[in-house]
Write a structure and sequence with these properties.
The protein has 297 residues and is of the alpha/beta class. The protein folds into 2 domains: 72 residues, Helicase, Ruva Protein, domain 3, CATH 1.10.8.10; 202 residues, 3-Layer(aba) Sandwich (Rossmann fold). Helix 1 packs across helix 2, helix 2 packs antiparallel against helix 4 and helix 11 runs parallel beside helix 12. It is globular. 37% of the residues are buried. The structure holds S-adenosylmethionine. S-adenosylmethionine (SAM) binds next to helix 7 and strand 4. S-adenosylmethionine binds next to helix 7 and strand 4.
């Protein structure tokens, strides 16, 4: 009987998913196989010749079939990696994207610099709007000491997975979750309602762009995490209108944007009259991706 080793399976699944026109087939093959064998992805490469037993092959077969029908592997195995942290995901939250790691990196750098120039031991207060799985808040809290974060999302089911992730990374003393529409759940008397940093990766897909999205995004990820009105700018407009009430002197607002939205979002922020300096940064694919706006004071 034919012996299926890890190497042979990896190659076979990669080819199968390539033929089915699935993106990043090798990465998907590694995710599905390592999950089935209950190992880390990197371990696959140290055990190339290990034979895989029939019950595991049967399990793998079902997972590969789902992936070949465009279901994202992160949803199939219930987790993904973000900023070198394992983040649980399900169909109620967006799968964290590599572009958002750039937003997170800038947020951490900003807080680090602020801590170095101000009192190092004083807490810095951060608001992560539209937190989804909680990935941004969690990566900031893990990497920047003396940070307290309020993370909000309108979707209760997304917050359930965010709570799971916060617990998993032992950050319950650093991150508070609130359910509601953007800033609405913050109660000024009760919460730290002025922040050193407000960070947000909002829904920003326009109606027209939505139709052109890949099937694995369009058919599986929550529409409420993607769509933001006809032009995709609904949430930016609201943030620009309300953010002034929530920023401390010297604070910053950092937003992820769609690659065509830099000009429009810059104009919205300029019109708000709240910011002295607005910069736009490109991602690794040379697309406009992060807007940082520094508060006037
Ligand atoms: C693009 S996802 C980002 C999730 C996560 N921050 C990330 O980067 O992976 C946007 C999130 O915004 C939430 N959302 C949509 N409209 C909202 C609103 N009006 N107020 C708060 N959250 C909202 C969605 O439920 C979703 O979890």
């Amino acid at each position: 009987m034919e012996q299926w080793t890890i190497q042979k399976l990896l190659n076979w699944i990669t080819q199968y998913l390539t033929d089915k026109k699935i993106d990043t087939p090798r990465l998907n093959a590694e995710m599905l196989l390592s999950n089935t064998l209950e190992m880390q992805r990197i371990e696959l490469y140290t055990m190339f010749d290990k034979p895989v037993a029939p019950p595991q092959l049967a399990k793998l077969h079902k997972l590969v079939k789902r992936a070949s029908e465009n279901e994202p592997s992160a949803y199939i195995i219930g987790k993904t990696e973000f900023y070198s942290l394992e983040i649980n995901v399900n169909k109620n939250c967006l799968i964290p994207r590599p572009e958002t790691e750039l937003l997170t990196e800038r947020a951490i750098e900003f807080l680090r610099e602020k801590s170095e120039t101000e009192n190092k031991n004083e807490n810095k207060y951060v608001c992560d709007l539209c937190t989804g799985s909680g990935c941004v808040a969690i990566a900031i809290a893990k990497n920047q000491p003396n940070t307290k974060i309020i993370a909000t999302d309108i979707c209760d089911a997304a917050l359930t997975i965010a709570a799971e992730n916060i617990e998993k990374h032992k950050l319950t003393d650093k991150i508070i979750l609130l359910c509601g529409d953007l800033f609405e759940p913050l109660i000024p008397q009760l919460d730290e309602a002025k922040f050193d940093l407000i960070v947000c990766n909002p829904p920003y897909v326009s109606d027209e762009e939505f139709e052109k999205l890949d099937k694995n995004v369009k058919d599986y990820e929550p529409k409420s995490a993607l769509l933001a009105g006809k032009d995709g700018l609904d949430i930016y407009k609201r943030i620009a209108g309300e953010v002034n009430n929530f920023l401390k002197p010297g604070a910053a607002l950092m937003l992820e944007i769609g690659c065509e939205q830099a000009k429009a979002v810059r104009e919205l922020l300029e019109k708000s009259g709240v910011f002295s300096e607005i910069t736009i940064e490109k991602d690794h694919q040379n697309h406009d991706r992060i807007i940082t706006a520094k508060h006037k004071s």
